[in-house]
Specification:
By secondary structure, this protein is mostly beta strands. The protein has one helix at residues 2-24, and strands at residues 40-50, 63-74, 81-95, 98-102, 108-112, 119-138, 148-168, 171-175, 184-194, 197-204, 214-215, 218-219, 223-233. The longest helix is centred in the N-terminal third of the chain and has 23 residues, at 2-24.
């Protein structure tokens, strides 16, 4: 997961430098009536877990990093409305007190750690390949780089890898083969803001775990909620 985060940060920095260098050039040309907007995106989010089972709590700072490319396809003559379809990567972590553990036979169990002083690390993480689909409205023109935007849409995600880590009184262990993690995730997205700074919200409609993941006979129906900032470059 750390490697994926490092690659995403490096690509974001390179894209930002390219964008800034292009903006510094003064070129006297006619306005391009075929312009497009916001082809690359980079986001940082605070990750929450909705519909948590009773006594399941989050702790620390759970983060998400998102990077990708979106094909901007204007649908009107003014080119301030468009459909965006893209592909990207996402790295996410969730710090909480839900213990995921295997016994000697490889059977996975789930329980709530009631005393937070008994562990120093307990989290699960996931890496996704994402396909965002957006309806885009903005106040941009071919010669204006500062504008308002509202992008609402849907995102499909496929899990590339996952991990569950624990360090505490029970020892130290890490699992990367928990079959109860849902491979497919989908949810609603909304990005809105002005110029560089844009608030971003993602609300997953699918649960993190399958129905086989249970506590005391009840399914763990938690789903991801991500709130943060989204940055766009051409």
């Amino acid at each position: 997961m750390r490697r994926i985060k490092d690659v995403m940060i490096i690509l974001f920095c390179a894209s930002s430098c390219l964008c800034f260098s292009q903006n510094e050039e003064v070129v006297e040309t006619e306005a391009d009536n075929k312009y497009k907007e916001d082809q690359f995106y980079f986001g940082v989010t605070y990750n929450l877990l909705g519909l948590r089972p009773e006594d399941v709590k989050q702790s620390g700072f759970s983060t998400g990093f998102h990077l990708g490319f979106i094909k901007d396809m204007p649908i009107n003559a003014a080119r301030n409305k468009a459909i965006g379809l893209g592909i990207g990567l996402s790295a996410n972590s969730y710090n909480q007190n839900l213990l995921i553990q295997k016994d000697d036979a490889g059977v996975v169990s789930y329980s709530v750690i009631e005393d937070s002083d008994t562990f120093t690390k307990n989290r699960f993480s996931s890496n996704f390949i994402e396909v965002p689909l957006e309806f885009r409205w903005r106040t941009s023109t071919a010669t204006s780089y500062d504008f308002w935007r509202i992008y609402a849409g849907f995102k499909f995600s496929y899990m590339l890898s996952h991990a569950a880590k624990y360090d505490g009184d029970l020892g130290s262990f890490k699992y990367t083969d928990i079959s109860d993690f849902n491979k497919f995730e989908y949810g609603l997205t909304l990005s809105a803001g002005y110029n560089t700074w844009n608030l971003h919200l993602y609300y997953a409609l699918s649960p993190v775990f399958s129905n086989d993941a249970q506590i005391d006979g009840s399914s763990i129906d938690m789903h991801a909620i991500k709130v943060g900032l989204m940055f766009y470059v051409l």
